[in-house]
Amino acid sequence: MLKIKIVQLIVAGLTYLLALFPKVLLSHKEKEKVQPQPQPQRDEESEWEESEWEANERYALSWRLAVESNNVRPWRTVPPKCHTHVQNYMSSGQYYRDLNLIVEHILLYASDLPLSSDAMDAWVLDVDDTCISNVSYYKAKRFGCDPFDSAIFKAWIMKGMCPANVAVKVLFNALIARGFKVFLLTGRDESLAKITTDNLHNEGFVGYERLILRSPEYKGQSAVRYKSAIRKAIEGEGYRIWGNVGDQWSDLQGECLGKRTFKLPNPMYFIS
Fold this sequence. Notes:
Layout: H1 2-34, H2 44-68, H3 83-91, H4 94-111, E1 121-126, H5 135-140, H6 150-158, H7 166-178, E2 181-189, H8 193-202, E3 210-214, H9 223-236, E4 240-246, E5 260-263
Helix pairs in contact: 2-3, 4-7
Pfam families: Acid_phosphat_B
Family: Belongs to the APS1/VSP family.
Function: May function as somatic storage protein during early seedling development.
């Protein structure tokens, strides 16, 4: 009888627990629903840094477009917030891809021109950052964020180490082969004639009609006025200027510009 009694008590206890279990389970689920989930901690500083970088990049893209379209002028240095963007643009390969594309279009234009038999069809090319490159120099100057120093830049020129812009050298050789008389027109003064000539020749710029440097007559004049006068003199000799290529808008403004002008990219400095 005692055993039966014990079994009955156990069964009764189990029955009670089974009846209670759904209520406990439901209560637990309700607590899970109500209990808020822990939120991951937010690194506010890293988010601020990321948003600052994005804001600078957006600004720099707009600034570079405004510079290349000649809507920002004059400007002395690259804004500090644009440093990373300009550095990446000049170093990542995009600058050279842009040069290649522009030169492709210049070659298309030049290939269709009807040249005369009088050997007076001409083309004008700028020198610095058109034919030969100063990117290595400007890399040390934070790609134009540091102020221009004429003495340091002249010391760089005197090394004669400016490499060719390969795309422009291809253009130069194609123009020579086609029969154009190519004039190299630079803002460098005549005291730099030998080192500039040697640098150009060493980089493969051979066969041009004339290298023209700034004479004392044009000292202190703006690039626009100086280069306009030179182009006018070239046309005065009877040459027809079919094309004019430069990295500065001052290469492409003023008088006697030629039939077409072509602007090469340069977000590192501005010459008026």
